[in-house]
User: Fold these one by one.
Assistant:
Number 1:
Amino acid sequence: MAARLVWVIGLAAGAALTGCSSTPATPSSTTPTASAAGSVSIDNKDSGPVSSVTCQSQADGLLAITVESTPRLSMLLTGNGTVVNYISMGGSFHDTGLTYVVGSNSSGMEVHLSRTGQTFTVTGTGIGHVGDSDKELLVPFTIVATCP
């Protein structure tokens, strides 16, 4: 399961970053800027303080959001910030981690996105692990990030 998940994540991230067209990638339309407005909770527990939120828009409607917390969280939104394509948090089975990839066939994974101005609130259930457990679980999450 873990090997398949890594393969799916790599495939989705690669497709999202390269785009789905034959036209060359365009440079980002905005320079990334950072603020400290955000929060992350995994398995109904606050993951700790957020030191910054960085947002970078691409000309093709992609929005990359990075939430600097422990552990770090990255999200890729498509459709000019209207669809969650990918979420990744953590990376070690000794930390709390979370993965969500749009279109994955994992039963129980879901995501909901709401946007008010430059504040994105993402809630749902992703594949994750909590603490020292090496067992993959479906875990609830809430992410709030305000782009500067």
Number 2:
Amino acid sequence: MRTNESFAVLARTTAIVFDKTGTLTKGFPIMEGCHNFEFATDDHVLAMAASAEEKCEHPIARAIIEAAHRKGLQLETPRESHALPGEGVIATLAQGPDILVGNTSLMERMGVYFPAKQTIMRIEAESDGKSLVWVARRSSHLLEPLGMIAFRDECKSGAAAVLRRLRMQQGVEIWIVSGDHERAVKFTSRYLPVPHTNVFGGATPDAKAELVDRLRLEGHIVAFVGDGDNDSLALRRANVGIALGSGALGARTAADITLVTADLEALPDLFALARSFEDQLRVNSAASISFYILLLPVAAAGLLTPMMAMLVMLATMGMLFASHHKPFQIQPVTTQPIDRKPYHEA
């Protein structure tokens, strides 16, 4: 925890924004398919993507590289590599052209054209909850698509229980934001107790921060929970930023509070402890003020001797010390397998 003020802000939080990948999901994407277009083979597409992603630490980048290694593919070391947070990477291979690896927004921004067949494949995959990575290469002055790689990343087993407890016991509103396409994000969120109106996909790092800013302008006290470098800006913009212990260095540096592990189970306890502590402070302050007000007439009548005043002060300090050190009762989270029935907002 960076400052004591962060703990106090937790007690007043009214909205929590969660990053999806690696925060609510396991963060270990599983490659479910590599589809080449007419210019390349599946293995060539995977090898090009893995070579371009060699220096990247994003979970999907590591999954691409591991899949290429399992197939025994030969990779090239890129001469240059430029990461585009929230979108992908552009790399120049040692013995080849520029390679683009990234999401749909990157390809659209760079002017990559996808025929109708590939667009239909994309919509079907995203509607099934898969995250897509596109691979393209520069040919002369044009960028031609080579293929796409599909991934699936499951929710953490305790994620639904944690979000449900935060909503019911702490009374906060929950939001989910991700760089994945909105169709894929909404598919994943079907198993989480979050209304679809509070789920946003296709978000760049700036868009995540803008969501935090908008909620703050609406009067919310906002906590942002994330684990990636592309969450750093939103973590800094929130009233209180919370990073997972397994997260990227950029996220942990930007956050006000860093959890010890990648598990979310401690999160409701953290909020409950902050609110209990804040409530106890209010009770103690009220009790102290009331106690001294009651003694004012006694002192005014000259009935309060210095010895009695000292004993009263010691008694008050003793009560405050005892109340501050009493154990807070925190209800543990019961981790259960995910209920695969879609959640429907009541």
